[in-house]
Specification:
Length: 220
């Protein structure tokens, strides 16, 4: 087999209200450190990172951090179209951000069709609750109930401590990979949601040789 740089490329989008913590979450995942983001994202920011599924392929994630303000919605909608999945981000200390999640989810479904997108529900700023700096306005049980109703993985995270940040991204990556293995997803001409990887030599790759990854589980 060729010396692979990565086996697949998945394009993901982070969506949710402004200031819920999308940029901080993504920067911790990308750089491994907390960055206090005071200014809201203007338009769209782009990041990329390659991760390894346990006993499975190397996957490059193209990550698009979108602005949550209404005036940028027409810009960010164009980035839905070529995405295969979305992280639905809310702030566990701001009730309204959780109440708006169904709107964001429906937007993604509408613009990603005819493909069925993979979602992960991600609560941010867990550290503010744990250290007493802010009061929790969304319970973990509410989030899990929403996840159960829509059959999506849920997790609470902190970009400051790093708690569950890797889990959020690995969960959505593994679910997309499972849908490829089941045949639901296929690489298509003109769609950037999923692409085949690159190697140093041209060679056919038999992905059936990979062992199925264990499903992600929340630690708390």
């Amino acid at each position: 087999m060729a010396d692979l740089m990565f086996d697949y490329q998945f394009r993901l989008i982070l969506i949710g209200d402004s200031t819920v913590g999308k940029s901080s979450l993504l920067k911790f995942f990308n750089d491994g450190k907390f960055v206090e983001v005071s200014d809201p994202t203007v338009g769209v920011d782009f990041f990329a990172r390659t991760i390894q599924i346990p006993s499975g392929p190397r996957i490059k994630l193209q990550l698009w951090d979108t602005a949550g303000q209404e005036r940028f919605r027409s810009i960010t909608k164009s980035y839905y179209r070529n995405s295969v999945g979305a992280l639905l981000i809310y702030d566990i200390t701001k009730r309204a951000s959780f109440d708006h999640i169904p709107v964001w989810m429906n937007d993604a479904k509408r613009h990603i069709e005819p493909h069925r997108p993979v979602f992960v529900l991600v609560g941010c700023k867990l550290d503010l609750v744990n250290n007493g700096a802010s009061k929790r306005e969304v319970t973990e049980e509410e989030a899990k109930q929403f996840g159960a109703e829509h059959n999506i993985f849920t997790v609470e995270t902190s970009a400051k401590t790093g708690s569950n940040v890797e889990l959020a991204f690995s969960a959505i990556t593994q679910e997309i990979y499972q849908r490829i293995k089941s045949g639901e997803y296929q690489m298509e001409e003109g769609w950037d949601g999923i692409k085949s990887g690159y190697s140093h030599h041209s060679a056919s790759i038999d992905f059936n040789n990979y062992i199925e990854a264990e499903p992600a589980k929340s630690c708390c």
